Description:
This is Peptidase. It comes from Candidatus Nitrosopelagicus brevis. This protein is mainly beta and 531 residues long. It is built from six helices and 33 strands.
Amino acid sequence: xxxxxxxxxxxxxxxxxxxxxxxxxxxxxxxxxxxxxxxxxxxxxxxxxxxxxxxxxxxxxxxxxxxxxxxxxxxxxxxxxxxxxxxxxxxxxxxxxxxxxxxxxxxxxxxxxxxxxxxxxxxxxxxxxxxxxxxxxxxxxxxxxxxxxxxxxxxxxxxxxxxxxxxxxxxxxxxxxxxxxxxxxxxxxxxxxxxxxxxxxxxxxxxxxxxxxxxxxxxxxxxxxxxxxxxxxxxxxxxxxxxxxxxxxxxxxxxxxxxxxxxxxxxxxxxxxxxxxxxxxxxxxxxxxxxxxxxxxxxxxxxxxxxxxxxxxxxxxxxxxxxxxxxxxxxxxxxxxxxxxxxxxxxxxxxxxxxxxxxxxxxxxxxxxxxxxxxxxxxxxxxxxxxxxxxxxxxxxxxxxxxxxxxxxxxxxxxxxxxxxxxxxxxxxxxxxxxxxxxxxxxxxxxxxxxxxxxxxxxxxxxxxxxxxxxxxxxxxxxxxxxxxxxxxxxxxxxxxxxxxxxxxxxxxxxxxxxxxxxxxxxxxxxxxxx
Length: 531
């Protein structure tokens, strides 16, 4: 089937669909029209729409997932582009989550439109009730069914099995009901607090549009964000998946991750630059989109065999500099860099480009104000007109840089603000930087001969249990020294595939001790290695 894609307004969060009837399947974003089927002399189509509507329930904002299912006569008037509603439709709907049927209900709809609101509540068991309190964004029926349950607090993959039992009359029971399987992936946002020695506590986030995140880790040294979610690596899943879309949320208070470019991997395989996009238009968070199309998934599946049914993504800065940000009005981008660490009492030069986002990031000459703040106090300011020369060309002195003797009493986080670009009060952007950067106290000591064990394990010559027991012994004997973070309770009984990949790369010299040690730290963290 050919999937139809619709743009969802910014105040709604789209959902991914996969639809399947015999010999036809596909994914869509927000809306999916299934291939038509013949019921007697009538050609009928099922269309499914999804959105998330945020509303106040008992004084608390809740995200209600609205699913609308419309069964109608296929396009009949070529001049008016109208479709004909089918009356008296009986829907049999089974809702399945994690292999468990949580809803199995029959609904009769006079107008052929069924709207269901999946509403988070404290009910352990899912309850269904008919209500008219929620308006339909799609302007369909006013009579809606509200499903309430604790399970709807979570996103992930929700499977629908839908049968059309009657049409035109509730007495007209179909001997061969139309049957559809719909996998609706509801977005979910999870936040993870990390403690950076320079920036303090920061909240990184993952928005998944496929299934729930099962593993998360952040390496402060390498700035790698690593997360996993379930994915069945088989041809049927590939055929039904048009796109894998994940978002990494980076707080704009965390300067180390406000870089101009990222690189990403999927199960250890490099993803092309075109799949990684930066969205700086949110006030609080930068959104890093990772979008893998069905074509790329098919290529990955055809050329690789994965032992685990999951996807592990790694996202990290391509380089530490330049930093990059977009003004509130989206018109200008500022790139910012320097050549040596910022130190109290030292002379420094910080350079920047001001680019026009509407002209494909072309350098532009505009007036601007530059201010630097420390603990809320302004400690530096400058006004000028930027240069429209390219970085490789000679620029007039002092146009796109500032020379600064950093005061001896300034240390820690400073905020560099660009304001009133081209005279606009909404053309502002800021960057948090570190003066007197502290080095992480993380130290790693791993003897060279341990690489033999790692290589044997990665190639399957020794089992997981032998690897874990060996590493535990080496840590307890202080032959291997890695930082021991606080152990967390995790639902994890197997070693993640990415750790075995790291071991293989480390054994062959492709990654350093620090990167390999992150896997050991993770196994300690989830309790698979006990020290």
